[in-house]
Design a protein that fits this description.
This protein is of the alpha/beta class and 215 residues long. The chain folds into 2 domains: 77 residues, Methionine synthase domain (Methyltransferase, Methionine Synthase (B12-binding Domains), Chain A, domain 1), CATH 1.10.1240.10; 120 residues, 3-Layer(aba) Sandwich (Rossmann fold), CATH 3.40.50.280. It contains 9 helices and 5 strands, in the order H-H-H-H-E-H-E-H-E-H-E-H-E-H. A 5-stranded parallel beta sheet has the order 2-1-3-4-5, with helices on both faces. Helix 5 links the parallel strand 1 and strand 2. It is elongated.
Length: 215
């Protein structure tokens, strides 16, 4: 019998070498792919997020868990690709690090966490100028634009990017959130006019869900 709880445990403990066999065994026994994702894989990542918030684990462990889940998802994706409704995403997010900043670890962790929570995520890289955020959001039909800044010198670029989004034709339908070591909630929301602020990757998922009315 398929070890469904084992799938959950493998993700929580970051056992990437084990996840492929566990997921494949479940699929071989015709376990519904959506049950695997929703009831076990996403639930596992929720527990990982809770452990991170409680400081029981730290960024490296959380990244390993998210990558373990991604490995398992690679087996499942082909099975649900033809099912338009079943493969419907929670939303589309465009994310990048603002102009003048080349840091990517925190941003990449947010990408993993969002993907693990059912979002379609487009990582547009680092050192991204404001106009590129707008162009990519338009091109990819984004619901949310997320920007990261780890340097205080990035503050003007955070503000310029938010202003570019809010003055564009996307202003009424694309939400903008900010995060990163150099950004505070007061600056992002009160000064720059962002729709949300995330203090870390786990909070980032919650904030994206909130601004989209998903939780």
């Amino acid at each position: 019998m398929a070890d469904l709880e084992g799938i959950k445990t493998a993700i929580i403990k970051g056992k990437r070498k084990e996840i492929t066999g566990l997921v494949q065994a479940a699929l071989d026994e015709n376990v519904d792919p959506h049950t695997l994702i929703n009831d076990y894989m996403i639930e596992a990542m929720k527990e990982v997020g809770a452990n991170f918030e409680a400081k029981k684990i730290f960024v490296p462990e959380m990244m390993i868990a998210a990558r373990t889940m991604q490995t398992g998802l690679e087996l499942i994706k082909p099975l649900i690709a033809q099912d338009a409704e079943a493969s419907k995403k929670a939303g589309t997010v465009v994310i990048g690090t603002v102009f003048g900043d080349l840091h990517d670890i925190g941003k990449n962790l947010v990408v993993l966490m969002l993907e693990s929570s059912g979002f379609e995520v487009h990582n547009i890289g680092e050192n991204v100028p404001p106009e590129q955020f707008v162009e990519k959001a338009r091109e990819l039909k984004a619901d949310v634009v997320g920007m990261s800044s780890l340097l205080t010198t990035g503050d003007p670029h955070v503000k310029a990017t938010i202003e570019a989004m809010k003055s564009s034709d996307l202003a009424d339908r694309v939400k903008v959130i900010c995060g990163g070591a150099a950004v505070t909630k007061k600056y992002a929301v009160d000064v720059c006019g962002a729709d949300g602020y995330a203090r870390d990757a786990v909070d980032g998922v919650k904030v994206v869900q909130q601004v989209l009315g998903l939780g």
